[in-house]
Amino acid sequence: MADPVALVALALDAAIGWPDRLYARVGHPVGAFARFLNLAERLGNSPKRPEGVRRGLGVVTMVALIALTGGIAWGIEHAVHLWLGRWGWVASAVLAWPALAQHSLYVHVRPVADALLRGDLPAARALVARVVGRDTERLDQAGVSRAAIETLAESFCDGIVAPLFWLLLLGLPGVWMYKAINTADSMIGHKEPRWRAFGWAAARIDDGANWIPARIAGVLMCVAGAGGWAVMKRDARAHASPNAGWPEAAMAGALGVALAGPIAYDGVTQIKPWIGREGRVAQPRDIVTALQIYARACLLLWVIAGGVAWLA
User: Fold this and answer.
1) Are 279 and 311 in contact (CB under 8 A)?
2) What pLDDT does 54 receive?
3) pLDDT tens by residue, 170-188
4) 143-163, pLDDT tens digit by residue?
5) Which residues are CB-neighbours of 90 under 8 A, at least 6 positions away?
6) Which Pfam family, any one of them, does this sequence belong to (predicted)?
7) At 1, is the pLDDT very low, low, confident or very high (cuts 50, 70, 90)?
8) CA 203, CA 206: separation in Å to the nearest integer?
9) pLDDT above 70 coverage of the chain, percent
10) How far apart (Å, rounded) are the C-alpha atoms in residues 248 and 263?
11) In the chain, how long is the greatest CA-to-CA distance?
12) HEC profile of the chain
């Protein structure tokens, strides 16, 4: 039996997440990635540079970020194993724990459902605005419900399945290289003119890093939700992202609701295809059911992590 690094990291995250008090004191490790990317963007993404040069500098930025992150994580992991010997795996689990987001995702989405269920739409809009990028000021009850369910499904991949996948595959360097890539995509991997060239590499590398995890996430959602297979198979590729559509379509099918559709960003409405188009309008109780499916899918990841440790 191999050391249960991933299983212990999942348990730590589920039990305590990343505590607010700890965040207030030391921040979060992804803050280091953000500072690196902000500096690189200031130095390399001048609009005065030709688009090809900015794209090249974006590639250099991503190579440097991934190499530095992987090298530092490998060095730390090697050092703790030398220092602690056979107990070094415990330190590896603790160091991997902040890269997972089971607890955080649940505690950010559940209050949205609670606010809607008590009839406080303004509070629900404010709460869901913390976890989505779309405009929320004019969302009705169905729109808030849909936004919460979509971010829960998509973040199940980005925040849990993908980090765990890379942790199991490449150890501590793998999980933190993935977090660096995902942070870069969220910061600079956009299609707006400012980011299109410089962030091209970040977006493409993130697509590649999430390709397998997204499909695993969709399958887990279908198993945990006891359904959704047909909708996932049909609608997963309707999403603008090559990956986000898999868990979202699986969740839409499991709940029997319609997700995606028209969404407003910065005051501009974008017409996007519906996922689960024959489904009903999402309601607050659907967020609660989605959280139950999410919790069962997380438990399936625990089984997978335990099985890998047992069989390795």
Assistant:
1) no
2) 95
3) 999 999 999 999 999 999 9
4) 999 999 999 999 999 999 999
5) 8, 84
6) CobD_Cbib
7) low
8) 5
9) 100
10) 15
11) 58
12) CCCCHHHHHHHHHHHHCCCHHHHHHHCCCHHHHHHHHHHHHHHHCCCCCCHHHHHHHHHHHHHHHHHHHHHHHHHHHHHHHHHHHHHHHHHHHHHHHHHCCHHHHHHHHHHHHHHHHCCCHHHHHHHHCCCCCCCCCCCCHHHHHHHHHHHHHHHHHHHHHHHHHHHHHHHHHHHHHHHHHHHHHHHHCCCCCCCCCCCHHHHHHHHHHHHHHHHHHHHHHHHHHCCCHHHHHHHHHHCCCCCCHHHHHHHHHHHCECEECCEEECCEEECCCEECCCCECCCHHHHHHHHHHHHHHHHHHHHHHHHHHHHC
- CA dist 267 and 126 (Å) reads 17
Start-to-end CA distance of the chain, whole Å, equals 6
What distance in Å separates the CA atoms of residue 112 and residue 139, rounded to the nearest whole number? 13
Domain boundaries, the chain: 5-311
Q: How far apart are CA 226 and CA 228, in angstroms?
A: 7
